[in-house]
Amino acid sequence: MSADGWSDLVPEWKSQPRSDETVLMRSVMRKQRWRKLGLMHELLGTIAVLAMTGYALLTRPPIEGMRSWYWGSALVLVVWQAGYLLMRHRYRLFGAPGGGLVGLIDAEIRHARYVIANMWFGVSGGLLLAAWALFVIPPELVPVVRTALLAATVWCIPYAIIRSYRAWRWIVRLRSHQEQLMR
């Protein structure tokens, strides 16, 4: 071994398998295609719900007091979907990552941060919508809404906590990798 000890390690270091950047880029592009497909699915779902709401309003006389619920829900749905689009834009989920491996890691960090924001935007919006429903719908439907609100709370909040925690742990790991690459 030489005096500094590093020169003997060079052959071993060079023999280590390296990550192929093109393979990583293809993986990121595949993920982006799936994300775009998910966005198209969301937009088609939004259009379908709006169409069903319009059909229900135009063809059937709504239950007394439900007309404001239909219109309000349709408005909330459009605003909510716009919020998701703005969040995707804010976290730059559709741009091609640049900057080599550091840029790829940065893109994954942005996606994990989006997951956290998405979870809490969805949970808070859903709970607000259910609370609003308690004031708008007819009194005979209030027990159904209370049951739905309880089910949403029991299922969505723990899921959002677990999913957010996992995304946060992923961000911490990715940042440590990013720091190692930047040294």
How would you characterize the overall build of this protein?
By secondary structure, the protein is mostly helical. 81% of the residues lie in helices and 0% in strands. It contains 5 helices and no strands. The longest helix is centred in the C-terminal third of the chain and has 41 residues, at 142-182. It is elongated.
Give the arrangement of secondary structure elements:
Blueprint: H1 10-15, H2 21-59, H3 66-90, H4 100-136, H5 142-182
Helix pairs in contact: 2-3, 3-4, 4-5
Strand tally is 0
Largest sheet: none
Order of helices and strands: HHHHH
Structural class: mainly alpha
Query: Helical region count?
Result: 5
Helical fraction equals over 70%
Instruction: Please state the overall shape, judged from the principal axes of the Cα atoms.
Output: elongated
Instruction: Please report the distance between the alpha carbons of the first and last residues.
Output: 25 Å
- Indicate the radius of gyration in whole angstroms: 24 Å
Chain-averaged pLDDT: 80
Low-confidence sequence ranges: none
Q: What's this entry about, in short?
A:
The chain has 183 residues and is mainly α.
List keywords for this structure.
single chain, 183 residues, mainly alpha
